[in-house]
Design goal:
single chain; alpha/beta; Rossmann fold; 6-stranded parallel sheet; 34% helix; binds adenosine monophosphate
Length: 396
């Protein structure tokens, strides 16, 4: 497999699949350019080598045809500013409009193609459409981890047209290497911290992790379904009644596999789901009627922290409590701090998937862990043990 760092792009037209699915306001201004910034290293390397960089992405959810509000056009001037060089814009991603722009490019130039999802063939993984895209380049680079779990024309199918000239971009390389450090070649002991509201959305992840980790920390609303499986009283806490048997089964499986499961022994409870609720502390197995657990308690934090600090690899997905409300954010903040401490001590720590990423950013601790994944859905599917088509297409 070729590597972006050692490959010379000089004189080559390089098609780069990026994830520029950025939020736009009503004036079509970009309100958060994190995803664009994440691709700059790859763009600069190819352009710096004297290659022609042809960027392609989707934006929003157009219904298979052009829709002005989902045009990639506003991204071109924004990217030009970040790169400090002009960015050409092609008003279509295939056909004469795309070819015309690319034919005008000089070595080192950057061009951006119109939204891939203006063609329903993109999400359909259409081979002919992938071939039309492939005609535009001599080399293919995938740097779009956010869509790596989709077998779309531009993320997976297209790679077949570049048997000896396909590779990951820098962002994708970082994501894949972070995942490998947890899922493939982790240093033990490995601890996974899984939180969030529902067991039902994390079943596949929990099952997959049971064969990878030494310790499984379960926090957040989902812990209460486990407490019910253990015969506890959970008051008004979030419980998925129909998942209680499954929680019991997961606890049994963990025992069989020798995985230590840590549940929060105590909780911060509230009389209402509200920021100004009356708050108290309680044992998690015995929450009084009318009260609900909305965060892990002090003893749970110290148990979890001790386990995290003894680990060489830590994966964190899902908050420990309702971190969006200040009175119930402490547990999640303390766990984020423990991760930072473990990282400083030499552990590899990965934060991935949705709300835990939002939490670590909110606390300003993203720079203190080893890696924060940029791909929500893609990361969750990888944690479920599924092979991601965008990754497999490059590796295979
Ligand atoms: P998920 O999308 O399943 O990862 O869950 C994230 C959400 O879980 C966040 O919005 C949290 O506010 C919520 N959450 C975490 N702990 C609890 C809890 N004890 N009770 C209710 N919701 C919770």
């Amino acid at each position: 497999m070729a590597s972006i760092d050692t490959f010379s792009f000089r004189g080559k037209r390089t098609l780069v699949r990026v994830d520029f699915n950025v939020p736009l306001n009503e004036k079509l201004e970009i309100t958060d350019d994190t995803r664009i910034r994440a691709a700059l290293k790859t763009i600069r390397k190819i352009s710096g080598d004297g290659g022609k960089v042809i960027l392609m992405s989707h934006l929003g959810r157009p219904k298979g045809g052009p829709e002005p509000k989902y045009s990639m056009a506003p991204v071109a001037p924004h990217l030009a500013k970040l790169l400090n060089q002009p960015v050409l814009f092609a008003p279509a991603c295939v056909g004469p409009d795309a070819h015309d722009v690319i034919n005008r490019m000089n070595d080192g130039d950057v061009a951006l193609l119109e939204n891939l999802r203006f063609h329903k063939e993109e999400e359909g993984g259409d081979e002919f459409f992938a071939g039309q895209l492939a005609e535009l380049g001599d080399t293919y680079v995938n740097d779009a981890f956010g869509t790596a779990h989709r077998a779309h024309a531009s993320t997976a199918v297209i790679a077949r047209f570049f048997p000896g000239a396909k590779m990951f971009g820098y962002l994708m390389e970082d994501e894949v290497s972070a995942l490998d450090k947890v899922m493939r070649n982790a240093a033990h002991p490995v601890t996974a911290i899984i939180g969030g509201s529902k067991v039902s959305s994390k079943i596949a992840i929990l099952e997959n992790l049971l064969s990878k980790v030494d310790n499984l920390i379960i926090g957040g609303g989902m812990a209460f379904t486990f407490f019910r499986a253990l015969g506890g009283n959970t008051g008004n806490s979030l419980v998925e009644e129909d998942k209680i048997p499954l929680a019991a089964e997961l606890l049994n499986k963990a025992k069989e596999k020798g995985v230590k499961v840590l549940l929060p022994g105590d909780s911060v409870i509230a009389d209402r789901f509200a920021v100004d609720a009356t708050v108290a502390a309680s044992e998690s197995l015995n929450i009084p009627a009318g009260w609900m657990g909305l965060d892990i308690g002090k003893n749970a934090v110290s148990d979890f922290r001790a386990c995290i600090l003894q680990s060489r690899t830590v994966l964190w997905n899902g908050p420990m409590g309702v971190f969006e409300m200040e009175p119930f954010a402490t547990g999640t903040l303390d766990i984020a701090r423990a991760l930072a401490e473990a990282t400083a001590g030499g552990a590899f720590t990965l934060v991935g998937g949705g709300d835990s990423v939002a939490a670590i950013n909110q606390f300003g601790l993203a720079g203190d862990v080893s890696y924060v994944s940029t791909g929500g859905g893609a990361m969750l599917e990888a944690l479920e043990g599924r092979e991601l088509p965008g990754i497999a297409a490059i590796r295979g």
